[in-house]
Amino acid sequence: MILDKRSEFADAVSCNTGAAGTYNIGDVIDLGVARDLGGDMALYLVVTVDTGITTAGSAGTVAFQLVSDGTDTIATNGTQSVHAVSSARVTGATAIPAGTVLFAVQLPMEGTAYERYLAVQQVTGTTALNAGKVNAFLVDDVARWKAYDAPFQL
Length: 154
Prior knowledge:
four-stranded antiparallel beta sheet; five-stranded antiparallel beta sheet; 47% strand; 9 strands; single chain
């Protein structure tokens, strides 16, 4: 997996600690014109935990979504174009640990048309986060590795 600085939304960017809601995190990528992303090859959005994500104690949820909009100030009120949404992760006093892959998805080639500016949003449910940092970026190959219980190990 090779990471290009121009295809990075967030590098150890703090999660928003406001109340439940949708928040823009990190940078936007200016596509210049709305188009299919990736051309002949697939592109993937990857969101990982850099520093453990926690809440003050009561459980809540956090999810991330890939969105686009016609302006570089991406809307958070539902008028933005949503292209992919992660599953909601339960948050609490026990952190979602650093290194956790929260989202790894191929960018859709069909469906909702991409607008000029591409971004990642944090969707906080129920209760505010009190700590955590994430990385979010586009790559053309997602490293995949999975541990299996013996006797299937090589």
